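quick one, 91 residues, struct below
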Amino acid sequence: MRAPGPLERAVEVTLTTGLGVSATLLVLGLVLGRQDVLRWAMILLMLTPVARVVVVTVGFFWRRDVLFGLVSLWILGVLAMSMWVGLGFRH
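---
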């Protein structure tokens, strides 16, 4: 088994940080009874995979892996359009 490279490490840090901050906000929101903090916890939790795709896309282009970089950009575009439609921005 090989040691994780810089891209794998960056993805790990991104996912771990997103989950950790989201969980902390969730607990704080529950303890304090603050709905706005709970909302931010859920938004951050949903955006964590998007951040992962951004990190992977940058990593692929950094490695000069254009094909996978373009595929990652396509996926990022699909995620962005999904959020755009989901939030109701139709015009």
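The first helix runs from residue 6 to 32.
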